[in-house]
Specification:
With about 250 residues, this protein is an alpha/beta fold. It has one domain: Rossmann fold (3-Layer(aba) Sandwich), CATH 3.40.50.720. A seven-stranded parallel sheet has the order 3-2-1-4-5-6-7, with helices on both faces. The longest helix is centred in the middle third of the chain and has 29 residues.
Length: about 250
């Protein structure tokens, strides 16, 4: 049955940034599909863990700040998943931050912080997971791209740079890892109603202009991403490599 290819029974997934929003939605979706979950966040994502455990899945909590974590510490976090849950099959690089300021006022610290979490941590965690995947003969890496992987945006030069780079390393990793049975792909959320987009939604003129361009006529929700997450984590996507999948209500084609 085709639906069986979407099952994740016996699989273990690590998701970063899981206390709310897209990360929590992804965790619940993968748990509903059968996976056990490792939840990495700078503070314990207890609400998400409770939701996962209520589905009968195991959880492993990793408290880590991706802004300051070293490559060695990130490798140790990947190993802790193997030690606690027996293996690792899926990595979802969800954690991200955004800092808004006009280009001429954008501080060096904001630039560095955004790149550290949105790009450096993605690279190091993916590299560490890939080493285990190659040894075991396969695995999945799912990155979070953005509409700003395709466009320039305004007031967010660091975020735009990081999301263009995430799209690039998704393709670069896919080129090297596909032959090892490892799938590396990304989802590019459109305008999703989360904490990150709260300042935009609070700007009436900006929100009106955004909604006018979205053919679906609404902001997305974390639930809109759950299907793509399960697809990319499952055997159903075994021949998909280096794809950047927009989930945007039609924003890019308008």
């Amino acid at each position: 049955m085709i639906l069986d290819s979407f099952r994740l029974d016996g699989k273990v997934a690590l998701i970063t940034g899981t206390s709310r929003g897209l990360g929590q939605g992804a965790a619940v979706a993968l748990a509903e599909a059968g996976a056990d979950l490792a939840l990495l966040d700078r503070s314990p994502a207890q609400e998400t863990a409770d939701k996962v455990q209520a589905l009968g899945r195991r959880t492993h909590m990793i408290e880590q700040d991706l802004l300051t974590a070293t490559p060695q510490e990130l490798d140790e976090s990947i190993q802790s998943v193997v030690d606690a849950l027996g293996r690792i099959d899926i990595l979802v690089n969800n954690a991200g931050i955004i800092r808004r300021a006009p280009l001429l006022e954008h501080s060096a610290s904001d630039w560095e912080d955004v790149l550290a979490i949105n790009l450096d941590a993605v690279f190091h965690l993916s590299q560490a997971a890939a080493k285990r995947y190659v040894a075991q003969g396969g695995g999945k890496i799912i990155n979070i791209a953005s509409m700003l992987s395709f466009q320039g945006g305004i007031l967010v030069p660091g975020y735009t740079a990081s999301k263009h780079a995430v799209a690039g390393i998704t393709k670069a990793f896919a080129n090297e890892l596909a032959a090892h049975g490892v799938n590396v792909n990304a989802v590019a959320p459109g305008y999703i109603a989360t904490e990150n987009t709260a300042p935009i939604r609070a700007d009436e003129a900006r929100e009106t202009s955004i909604l006018a361009r979205i053919p679906a006529g609404r902001w997305g929700t974390p639930e809109d991403l759950q299907g793509p997450f399960v697809f990319l984590a499952s055997p159903a996507s075994d021949y998909l490599n280096g794809a950047i999948i927009p989930v945007d209500g039609g924003w890019l084609v308008r």
